[in-house]
Task: structure prediction
Amino acid sequence: MSIFVKGKSRDGRKRQPERDAYDRLRQRQTLHQSAEREFKRQFFGLLLVIVTWSLAMGWLLALVTNAQGATPAAEIGTVDVVPAQYKLGQELYLENCSTCHIALPPAVLPTQTWKNLLEDSQHYGAQLKPLVDPPRILVWKYLLTFSRVQLDDEETPYRVNNSRYFKALHPGVKLPRPVQIGSCISCHPSANDYNFRRLSQE
Result:
């Protein structure tokens, strides 16, 4: 009789162990499905954030690229685009150097040449009043940034026709001998305006 008591529920019916196991299995399956749905929801949410961020970055990059592309090369003028932090140094360089001759882009001579020219009051046979700080520092930072390094075994050139950088910037160009600063205008008609990108038809 005790066997029957243990096997009965409160209402007097027999318990069905299979039914309990089935209910537990259904609960586990429901929990598992709920966890899967939550995981999928989080995954797709993260995927949506990544796609939205990528599209926004692509759009911003396209805006920046179009803004830079909208500026014609002729308006840039110099060999290198000069960031705002070096603009004042460039202006001071032009103010001090283009009054007597065409101001050359820093890229045509090595850094050591520019350093020596800034420190020396003798300038190609003329006596100059040297720049003093802080303008000298601003000009130097501009020249340092946009000139190229000199090789250890290389002699410091003081004429553009002796500079390997000047030659590298003019591949295949028949240059007059000797190269004079004034002869730049024959190929660069806007050189007086410090624009070396605009070239003559030749």
Summary: Helices lie at 2-6, 17-69, 73-76, 84-97, 111-119, 135-146, 164-169. The beta strands are 122-123, 126-127. The longest helix spans residues 17-69.
